Amino acid sequence: MPFTIQDAARRSGLSEPTLRYYEQVGLIGPIDRDPSSGHRRYHEEDLDNLQILSCLRAVGLGIAEMRVYQANRARGRAAAGEQRDLLLRHAERVEAEIVALRVHLEYLNAKAALWDARAQDDDVAEAAANERVQAMYPRLEAMVLK
């Protein structure tokens, strides 16, 4: 039983414009059309592909990487090593983002503590918080220069 674009969007979590775009750039499809109306008609296999793309998008893969992933999927076991490497390279980028986010979080907490100390009119706590903030600057600058 074919599904409408609305059904496909609802089941995949991707918007209708995203589904059209993914077809346009060759990530999916071509999608069958209803002969009388010309509307897209998605099949179970299409929905399976959309679910995979939705997951890849959720973890931050870009269009080019998704394209490679889909091509490797079509090649099956012959592309297993390439598929693994693609995913591990992205995992390394995610790890780097996590490190950066931890630094950002530490900085934000230090700045909040500084302002909390100021609100409390606590000079000792303010000085300690200010030292924490100052100590963060080299780490933040190093991230900007990467």
UniProtKB/TrEMBL annotation:
Q: Which Pfam families match?
A: MerR_1
Gene3D superfamilies reported for this sequence: 1.10.1660.10
Instruction: Report the InterPro entries cross-referenced here.
Output: DNA-bd_dom_put_sf (IPR009061), MerR-type_HTH_dom (IPR000551), MerR_fam (IPR047057)
**Ranges annotated as spanning the membrane:** none
HTH merR-type domain: from which residue to which, for each copy? 1-72
Keywords in UniProt for this one?
DNA-binding
CDD domains with a match to the protein in the record = HTH_YyaN
Q: Name one GO molecular function term.
A: DNA-binding transcription factor activity
SUPFAM superfamilies cross-referenced by the UniProt entry: Putative DNA-binding domain
Keyword field contains DNA-binding: yes
Give the source's domain of life in one word.
Bacteria
Instruction: Report the protein name in the record.
Output: HTH merR-type domain-containing protein
Q: Which organism is it from?
A: Nocardia macrotermitis
